[in-house]
Amino acid sequence: MKVYVLRIGHRPERDKRITTHVALVARAFGASGFLLNPCDEKIIEKIRETESRWGRFLEEIECVRSPLDYVRKWKESRGKVVHLTMYGMKLDEAIEEIKDTKSDLLLIVGAEKVPREYYDLADWNVSVGNQPHSEVAALAVFLDRLFDGKELYREPANPQIKIVPSRRGKRVVKGSEDSEGASR
């Protein structure tokens, strides 16, 4: 199962940091793609730079012109759609059904009020709690439950920087160093 995250309603003057965090969580917690509307080339470039330095997880990082059309086409040819919203069904009640589809997933993460059409197009409208909180948190919790925590320690392709887990200190491997050459 591949998961793509579609961030809609991004407000470039207001949402730079949150949208960047949505993208970083998407890549770190198991997504295979990050899609953005409206376009913000600075965010797309930041995520590509992160992929270059920390290793490649995302197959696709791009802007989407018409997110509604993208969602419709996704449903026709690629898989199922999950809309993360505090108004949806409880995550615990939806997650097993979502996993059982074994279909690729498009996760919709809104930045502002999400138009009704997305609720109607979604195969699942899923809430991660029913109190106001960050869409970054909702995405992280959803992906972690979807992948049963296995996504947290995946190895990316061609990292320039790698963190080596340690009880104390900072162990960082750069380039072709092995874990024994890590700095503290």
Short description:
With 184 residues, the protein is of the alpha/beta class. The protein contains 6 helices and 8 strands; from the N terminus they run E-H-E-H-E-H-E-H-E-H-E-H-E-E.
Describe this structure in words.
This protein has 184 residues and is an alpha/beta fold. It has 2 domains: 151 residues, SPOUT methyltransferase, trefoil knot domain (Alpha/beta knot); 28 residues, no CATH class. It has 6 helices and 8 strands. Strands 3-2-1-5-4-6 form a 6-stranded parallel sheet, with helices on both faces. Helix 1 runs parallel beside helix 2 and helix 1 packs parallel to helix 6. The longest helix has 14 residues. The radius of gyration is 17 Å and the shape is globular. The protein starts with a strand and ends in a 10-residue tail after the last strand. The C terminus is likely disordered.
Looking at how many chains there are and whether they match, the oligomeric state comes to: single chain
**What's the story with the biggest beta sheet?**
6 strands, parallel
Q: Averaging pLDDT over every residue, what do you get?
A: 93
CATH class of the largest domain: Alpha Beta
Write down how many β-strands occur, each being a DSSP E stretch of 2 or more residues. 8
> What is CATH's topology name of the largest domain?
Alpha/beta knot
Organism: Ignicoccus islandicus DSM 13165
Pfam family, one: Trm56
Protein name: tRNA (cytidine(56)-2'-O)-methyltransferase
Binding site for S-adenosyl-L-methionine: 84, 110-114, 128-135
